Amino acid sequence: MRLDKFLADMQRGSRAEVKKIIRSGTVTVNELPVKDPKTKVNPGQDVVAINGVIVQYIQFFYYLLNKPAGVITATKDEQAATVMTLLPKKWQRPDLFPVGRLDKDTTGLLLLTNDGELAHRLLSPRWHVAKVYTAGLDAAIGASEAVQFAQGVRLKDFTAAPAELVPLTHNRAQVTIHEGKFHQVKRMFGAVGRTVLTLKRVQFGPLALPADLREGHARPLTPAEIANLERLTELTRH
Fold first, then answer.
1. What are the residue numbers of the active site?
2. CA distance 152 to 167
3. Most exposed residue of 55, 106, 144, 238, measured as fewest CB within 10 angstroms of its CB?
């Protein structure tokens, strides 16, 4: 990898800015001054520093966001606020994107990353990654609705895969699906005669929404959480 790309990836400036930094003589590779931006470095072996401060290279970033209602799941939008704007400035990167989507009025767990391969495997139907939601409904549900969900609810354009529906209180329920089609949970409840008033995702695969993470706030995934995601998808790095 070129030295200027290394530093730009770690957000030490734009490619033009990091070239100026390198040419100023303040960058070292393995404690030796380097002034050529084209210098090749191995992120896993070489030690890069600016003014003596080591710059650690991290390829992939993972953030868990508690999405509030009123923002859309997108990287950019001309009219509406997006989930990306909720990240603190220090975590914002142009290559980050949300894994899957939550409707504008749906809240809860959303994963943001720049790891495209992991995102693909988490979303691919072949991996059967569970997504767990709590729903506030306009009326109670019972055993008959749970059976319909378990058998696969027939919708206008497809039949949903079997899902687990568990009553929580009078008009609240938990549902676990392994797909993620447009408005799927709302449409499934609609097919059994219920209207979803509120919807919150509380789990995505091995990731659970932390009880102490307020709506609109985010935090980096822990090493254990990242390992669990990679283990779930049997993801290998080359």
1. 103
2. 17
3. 238
